[in-house]
Amino acid sequence: MVRSLLTLGAAALLGATAVLADDIPTCSLDKKCPESAPCCSQYNQCGVGAYCLGGCDPRMSFSLDSCVPAPVCKDMTYKMDSLDRYKDISEYLGDSSKTDWVGQGEPLLYDGNVLLTMPPKSVGTVLATTTYMWYGNVKARLKTSRGRGVVTAFILFSDVKDEIDYEFVGVDLQTAQTNYYFQGIPDYVNGGNATIEGNSYDDFHDYEINWTPDEIQWIIDGKVGRTKKRSETWNATSNQWAYPQTPSRVQISIWPGGADTNAKGTVDWAGGAIDWNSDEIKDFGYYFATFAEVSVKCFNANSPPGTNKANSYYYNNIKGTNDTVVDSDKPTILKSLLGTGTNMNKGDGSSSTTGAHPSHSSGASVPGGGTAQVPGGTNPGAGTGNGNGANPNGDGSGSSNSGGSGSGTSGASPCQASGFSQSCDEGGSNGGTNPNSGSRVADRTLGASAFAVVIGFAGLLLL
């Protein structure tokens, strides 16, 4: 079992930061962000704007109020038949009333569902809800990806790094791996497997997490596959419950656990090195996972923990436990990507779109052959660094995937990166066997996380 920290664009950020500055501030529990770049992002880098929204860790930020308050839980059923309420993270300022999902990568529409895709040499796609669950029930109807080294994930993840997971390794289509973590502490005895009846790639299944202050249930097709009680998680050393307990976003993703940039233990856990020249790539042009529906039912407690009576959640203590969460009326929307939790009106708003990717308009080939006119067909998002996979075998700590660069293998799309752009031409290298040939060229210009870095540093210059 391996832990995957599903970061939004970590790889793109790392590439962009190398261009923009020699040493972007990083953050940890022992090293908080500086006042000039006060927000500690999900991937432990400091900045403003997008760094201060979803995933911002208040414990590692300059102050508890550096992060923007998070939108409270809403009972929702997300029919995954449209991308109208999805935004790339470079375009989101915190208004959850207008946007259901934020993310990065190449989500596509096909046959009334959303595909999370992973083209050759990329780092996949990740989507996260804009509202947060503070206990409750979440269910996803999905088909996983397949192939060695290919991982599909459906998780709950909080800003202080509490986590509840489903992960699916593409070489084992009858097993759902389950896990949980408290504040990102890498305890690898928390995992357990649940059996899937049938085939997770060919058949839709309902994967469910029922999360209360007292227990977590992982449920597949209505049958409880695993239960973990809070009473079983007491840590005498830290004198607290090592149990996920803070408001969390729903995150869904596909990522390359078998990438050659990962630790050997992660690659082994993912079923081996990923094959960028597989039949899946030849037939479709990408690996993919299919999502039909995600539903959220809030816990709706009358008193904390687990309420959603007001507008937003924030933390009033660095402990980051459920008794430090406040259900408040604080605003959640930045005026621009120059803002922070302590200066939410900074900027005139124009920076939220300047330099962002062009509109999605070109047709894209989809599984099953043929070409469909779908949003995201020419998504220039730079991919997603979804996978800080720690080594379950003790021979390495794992690392954030650095996909999105390098040359394509024979039969796959050649992808080359320079500066902030990456181009992948799906045609021309495979003799026309790929139904995507000539129909999808992803000009990944100024990917979302790279864009956030640009805006973040523009903000620093104005501080």
TrEMBL record:
List, alphabetically, the InterPro entries matched.
Answer: Beta-glucanase-like, CHR-like, ConA-like_dom_sf, Glycosyl_Hydrlase_16
Q: Which GO biological process categories is it annotated with?
A: carbohydrate metabolic process; fungal-type cell wall organization
Q: Which UniProt keywords apply?
A: Cell wall biogenesis/degradation, Glycoprotein, Glycosidase, Glycosyltransferase, GPI-anchor, Hydrolase, Lipoprotein, Membrane, Signal, Transferase
Q: Which GO terms describe its molecular function?
A: endochitinase activity; glycosyltransferase activity
Please list every transmembrane segment annotated in the UniProt record, as residue ranges: none
Query: Where in or outside the cell?
Result: Membrane
What topology in the membrane does the UniProt record assign? Lipid-anchor; GPI-anchor
Please list the residues that make up the active site. E163, E167
Q: What is its EC number?
A: 3.2.-.-
> Which residues are in the GH16 domain?
19-278
Q: Which Pfam families match?
A: Glyco_hydro_16
Q: Which GO terms describe its cellular component?
A: fungal-type cell wall; side of membrane
Q: Where is the composition biased (Polar residues)?
A: 339-364, 415-424
Gly residues: compositionally biased ranges: 378-388, 395-409
Role according to the record: Dual chitinase/transglycosylase that plays a role in cell wall architecture. Chitinase and transglycosylase activities are coupled. Required for the polysaccharide cross-linking at the septa and the cell wall. More specifically, transfers chitin to 1,6-beta-glucan in the cell wall.
Mind telling me what this protein is named? Answer: Crh-like protein
Q: Which organism is it from?
A: Dichotomopilus funicola
